[in-house]
Design brief:
The complex is a heterodimer of chains A (332) and B (154). Chain A has 332 residues and is mainly alpha-helical. Chain A has helices at 2-14, 16-22, 37-51, 67-77, 84-90, 94-107, 122-143, 149-159, 162-170, 174-177, 187-205, 207-217, 227-230, 236-246, 288-304, 323-326; strands at residues 253-260, 268-275, 278-285. Chain A has a 3-stranded antiparallel beta sheet with strand order 1-2-3, covered by helices on one side. Chain B has helices at 41-49, 51-57, 94-106, and strands spanning 8-9, 26-33, 62-67, 74-79, 84-88, 114-115. Classes of the chains: A mainly alpha (332), B alpha/beta (154).
Chain lengths: 332, 154
């Protein structure tokens, strides 16, 4: 402080005996370069290197957090009317309730004085996942009428898989609002929270709005995906033969259409499948067997109407339910 | 640094935003400013006049206003994909701050780095991409120029 500085200057002029007096004065604020700063910084850097970065903390434990405001903003952001009570229940997981009960027991608080009046989201989650599966199955069947049941199941299975659901939930801000025992929120907890949110939406706004919500956020994840990425078919030729016999079309005969570089490291063969001397599909491959399999897959995609050039899915607002039934997926 | 030395990304949207419904990607902003410093004068004016209108216009964004002793007033914007952007607003006027906020609201949370191509499509071809065998008569063997106009090529 200024008084300390003046005293020090005084010490220089008045000699050694004033310095002895000045040494005991402690300055409460040092505005100059701090002598301990370098050692402290090095120590902290060493500690970071030894222990690694600090574990992530949930957003609710960082500054600037208001749960009620966040939940309201969540509803407005998605343009949906949720009942806030149901939504708050949807975010509460059973593991969180368990952890709270144990904390209260550990602190010695009796269960009557501070009862935990919170319901968990197990019911809503079950409801939500049942609705999601039924909606997605209906949507798939309507968009791809010729796709068999196994295909529909595998597409729905892919869309409700933990990978896709957690990706969607994280990018919608559900992870911040979830109340769970561990952080970062484990995948299965996040999935069940997402399903509980769907259940809450269904109870608040009805099945149609929930269907539109699922279409806008889950079905959009199908954009750019190929059918056989989601549905593993071991024997495409066998499946093709089955499909053609069902439709009473003559069986396919494979013929080599084009080849190039047969004696090189990267040969290329195009095999075409002909039924009754008309080309069904052609596909490329490095070996003849691979080319034949690829041709079978191309033929299956054309039959089921899941090509890259199919008519784009209808995402227009509020018109979802009429269109897919009229939509005919015409290829070729 | 050249473009190879700095990070770059492709044009994309978070979660196919806009295909189904448009979701504003900004989830919360925190305005950190000082009650008495000169650098926060514009922020204080903005908070007096503009912040309530902004919060009403964007109901999907939570606005936290936090007066603290700080030299440098900041806006911390958090986006739905988890990215956090800090912008310093020292000595900006109220008008400039509201423009900055509109800019932050309209951004998706993806990083502001070089975008490799200004276009993106999930269906690059309707009739099928060209490859050297397109529109050629089927043949087995190396690709040779077809001699003149034959009946197939016309």
């Amino acid at each position: 402080m200024a008084s300390g500085y003046l005293l020090n200057r005084g010490a220089l002029t008045l000699g050694i005996h004033c310095q002895r007096a000045c040494r005991n004065i402690s300055l409460s604020q040092v505005r100059e370069k701090k002598r301990w700063m370098k050692a402290y910084t090095y120590l902290m850097a060493k500690k970071l290197k030894l222990e690694g970065p600090p574990p992530p903390t949930p957003r609710s434990q960082q500054p600037h957090w208001d749960y009620h405001a966040e939940v309201q903003a969540f509803t407005h952001r998605l343009h949906e009317n949720f009942s806030l009570e149901l939504l708050k229940t949807a975010f509460i997981n059973p593991c969180y309730l368990q952890m709270e009960q144990e904390k209260r027991k550990g602190l010695g608080v009796e269960s009557e004085t501070a009862a935990l009046v919170l319901k968990d989201n197990v019911q809503l989650s079950k409801k939500g996942s049942a609705f999601t599966e039924s909606f997605l199955t209906d949507w798939c069947r309507a968009s791809f009428p010729s796709l068999p049941a196994i295909g529909v199941e595998s597409i729905v299975g892919h869309l409700t898989s933990p990978a896709v659901i957690t990706y969607v939930a994280r990018n919608l801000g559900i992870e911040d609002l979830t109340m769970s025992a561990e952080f970062p929120v484990p995948d299965d907890v996040l999935c069940s929270t997402f399903m509980a949110v769907i259940g809450a939406l269904q109870e608040s706004s009805g099945a149609e709005r929930t269907g539109l919500f699922l279409r806008d956020f889950l079905v959009t994840q199908l954009i750019g995906k190929d059918l056989f990425d989601m549905w593993t078919v071991v024997n495409p030729m066998g499946l093709l033969v089955e499909e053609l016999t069902k439709r009473k079309i003559p069986l396919p005969e494979p013929r080599l259409i084009r080849s190039a570089g047969a004696s090189t490291v990267l040969p290329l063969y195009f095999v075409g499948l002909y039924s009754d001397k008309k080309l069904l599909a052609q596909g490329p491959g490095e070996t003849l067997a691979a080319a034949e399999e690829e041709a079978a897959r191309v033929a299956l995609r054309k039959l089921y109407g899941y090509t890259e050039s199919h008519r784009p899915f209808d995402f227009s607002p509020q018109q979802q339910h009429q269109q897919p039934f009229i939509q005919s997926v015409a290829s070729n | 640094m050249t473009s190879r030395g700095t990070p770059s990304r492709f044009l994309r949207s978070v979660l196919q935003n806009g295909v189904g419904r448009y979701v504003c990607q900004l989830k919360r902003i925190s305005i950190v400013f000082s009650k008495k410093a000169q650098s926060s004068l514009g922020v204080r004016d903005f908070i007096e006049e503009g912040v309530v209108d902004y919060a009403n216009k964007n109901p999907g964004t939570v606005v936290y206003v936090s007066p603290q002793p700080c030299r440098v007033p900041k806006i911390v914007a958090e986006y739905l994909n988890g990215n956090v952007r800090e912008e310093t607003i020292t000595s900006k006027t109220s008008q400039q701050i509201s423009e900055l906020l509109t800019k932050l609201t309209n951004q998706s949370g993806l990083e502001i780095i070089r975008i490799r191509k200004p276009f993106h499509t999930d269906s690059p071809s309707i009739q099928g991409l060209w490859h050297p065998f397109t529109n050629r008569p089927p043949s087995i063997g190396p690709i040779r120029p077809t001699k003149g106009l034959t009946k197939e090529n016309v």
